[in-house]
């Protein structure tokens, strides 16, 4: 087990706190090297399995957990539920390999914020961490299309139309923009409201529709026929 705190370059309390969870030392080392020199990101811990990731997340309270899907003891898929049940809830970004669409789909349905291919470049990794910390979806372009198609065809426990029936008019507007992949600041600018108000609407949408995250909500907008 590796449990390290890295404050290099972060000094300020506003740095994005990140926990890495991957059983491959080389993967953790590579991600750590990329993030350690970014001023607004602070790697606060590392785990080699899902159980350790849950424990260290409760201890260090990171903003973002980069979580490998395949790990011993407790894999990433099984770790999502206890992670998103924590208070405060971290944003969980799954680390995956190309072609693992089925597991990515399961992760998104369980409440993951998004997913990132392990071989993405450093700029994409940094962008993904910042986007997740802001509450925005993280979708690696290499597998997005296949995952969306799988989720759209998978259906749900209730008809999509009935799941959105209880939304207010403004919440429907926000839901459509989630379907377009817009970030909270972009939604705020479109509607002329503050980011805090957007976040309130998103939380309400997730509660009313039973979606585990904004990725699911965006897909629900497509399923319910709200996208024009």
Helix content estimate? 40-55%
By DSSP, the count of extended strands is 6
Rg (C-alpha, Å)? 17 Å
Order of helices and strands: EHEHEHEHEHEHHHHHH
Continuous helix count: 11
Shape: globular
Largest sheet: 6 strands, parallel
Q: Numbering strands along the chain, what is their spatial order in the largest sheet?
A: 2-1-3-4-5-6
Terminal residue distance: 50 Å
> How much beta, percentage-wise?
5-15%
Mean pLDDT: 84
Features:
alpha/beta; six-stranded parallel β-sheet; 6 strands; 50% helix
Describe the structure.
By secondary structure, the protein is an alpha/beta fold. Helix content is 50%, strand content 13%. The chain has helices at residues 25-35, 50-60, 76-84, 101-110, 122-133, 141-154, 160-163, 169-179, 184-191, 195-209, 214-223, and strands spanning 16-21, 41-47, 64-68, 91-96, 114-117, 138-139. It has a 6-stranded parallel beta sheet with strand order 2-1-3-4-5-6, with helices on both faces. Helix 5 links the parallel strand 5 (114-117) and strand 6 (138-139). Helix 4 crosses helix 6 (141-154). The N and C termini lie far apart (50 Å). 43% of the residues are buried. Mean pLDDT is 84; it is low at 1-12.
